[in-house]
Structure formats: structure tokens, C-alpha cells
Design a protein that fits this description.
The structure is a single chain. With 235 residues, this protein is of the alpha+beta class. The protein folds into 2 domains: 102 residues, 3-Layer(aba) Sandwich (Cytidine Deaminase, domain 2); 108 residues, endopeptidase fold (from Nostoc punctiforme) (Alpha-Beta Complex). The chain contains 7 helices and 11 strands.
């Protein structure tokens, strides 16, 4: 059996979810190495378990990422292409519905818009939207911030208040002096400052909530009340 046969059998064990793993050279052969999917919505996307990744690295040389699409074609989504570029490895996608494969390699692809992104934690999320806005609109390259393994861990201990000052942001004391480019830390349902939005002027914010597409929205009373802290980039 080939590594593709092994992955196909693995994917069919739980065909309703995206199953994932790594392609590695272990003992001189290409082998599929299964990994847990840590995503909250496993039927819609996947997040590789970093512990499984580390275990695979101990056993061999990683040369690719493998995952399944339970419904639809094996064609790569924007989230797949973004993750492929981010991780720097070829992606191999298997469609359970059509029993078909698709592969892609890192090629320098970037999303063509800040609007309409599909949420994928650590790649397309509320903070990456803000850093990409700064790069596109201000030519400011803000260093990548490593996220915890899962969203649940992040919600329990958001990193914004610790990391923003180290990235060149200073807290704004007077909320009435909000300006374009200000980062708004908002309280989530867990009573933690786990969501960040960007004020882009004209009483409008740019943000990306979990499970939704990135978008512009009016900075209405609900968002204003949820905003607990404001940070401004200080060059």
C-alpha cells in the first residue's frame, strides 16, 4: 500500500471530519503520519497538533501536509493556500466525496483582499488581519505572533495585552481620541480581551471573528461597549 492508500483509509475512519497528518520520509520510505485535528469545527477545517508534528520530526523528515475534504472537490481553498505558504510545505488534499486528490506547492501566493477571508486560527484570524492591514496600508511589517495550540487556550489567556507593547503599540488612555489604525481590544463572551479589531475611520472597524468572514462593520454601541482597551502604533 502507498502512503495515499494509508491516508485514504485513515480519512474514511471519520469521513464527516477533516482528517490530517504529515507526509514524511521515515526509514527511507515516504510514509503518512497521522496527526490529531485540534480545530473546534473539525468538519470544516483542520489544525495540526504541534505535539504530533514534533513526534513526526523525531522519527523522520517532514516533506508535506495531508488532509481530507469530507464534502466537495479536493481543490484548495484560500485557507489551504494560505496555510501552505505559512508552513512552507507541499499540501496534499483528498476529496472523500469524489475519491480524488489535489496537490499544491508554496508559490508566494497571498490573499488578494482583507475582506472575505475564511477564519483559520494563526493564519487568517483577527490579529493577522490587523498586521496585514498595517503592511498594505502603512508599509509596517509587524512581527508574527505565535499563538497557543488551540483557540480555547487563547481565550483563557489572551496574548494581546502582553505582546502589543513589545510590537510597538502604546495604550491610549482617552477612548474619545480614537484614530485610524488604532487597535481595539474587545471583551469576549468569556470576559477576556480575546478579540482585536482595527478602527479604519468613519465609525467603522475592520475585524475577523471566529467562524465568520473578515469584514468591515459599523463601530456601533455594542462594539463600543465591548471595547475595553485601545492601542496605537508608536513608530
Amino acid at each position: 500500500m502507498t502512503w495515499k492508500d494509508n491516508f485514504k483509509n485513515y480519512a474514511l475512519e471519520n469521513a464527516s471530519n477533516e482528517m490530517c497528518g504529515l507526509l514524511a520520509i521515515i526509514e527511507g520510505e515516504k510514509q503518512f503520519y497521522p496527526c490529531k485535528n485540534l480545530a473546534d469545527e473539525k468538519n470544516d477545517f483542520f489544525v495540526l497538533d504541534p505535539d504530533d508534528w514534533a513526534d513526526c520530526e523525531d522519527k523522520g523528515e517532514i516533506i508535506g501536509v495531508v488532509h481530507s475534504h469530507p464534502i466537495g472537490a479536493a481543490t484548495a481553498s484560500d485557507a489551504d493556500m494560505a496555510a501552505c505558504e505559512h508552513l512552507g510545505f507541499p499540501y496534499y488534499i483528498y476529496s472523500i466525496q469524489y475519491d480524488d486528490w489535489f496537490s499544491l506547492n508554496p508559490s508566494g501566493w497571498k490573499t488578494n483582499s482583507l475582506i472575505g477571508r475564511r477564519f483559520i486560527f494563526g493564519i487568517f484570524d483577527c490579529w493577522s488581519l490587523i498586521t496585514d492591514w498595517f503592511l498594505e496600508n502603512k508599509n509596517i511589517d509587524i512581527a508574527y505572533t505565535k499563538r497557543p495550540n488551540t483557540l480555547k487556550e487563547f481565550v483563557k489567556n489572551p496574548l494581546f495585552e502582553q505582546t502589543l507593547p513589545n510590537l510597538g503599540f502604546k495604550e491610549v488612555d482617552d477612548k474619545s481620541e480614537i484614530k485610524v489604525g488604532d487597535v481595539l481590544l474587545m471583551e469576549s463572551v468569556k470576559n477576556s480581551l480575546a478579540h482585536a479589531a482595527l478602527y479604519i475611520g468613519d465609525s467603522t472597524i475592520l475585524h475577523h471573528s471566529m467562524g465568520k468572514l473578515s469584514c468591515r462593520e459599523p463601530y456601533d454601541l455594542n462594539y463600543q461597549q465591548a471595547t475595553k482597551k485601545i492601542y496605537r502604533y508608536d513608530s
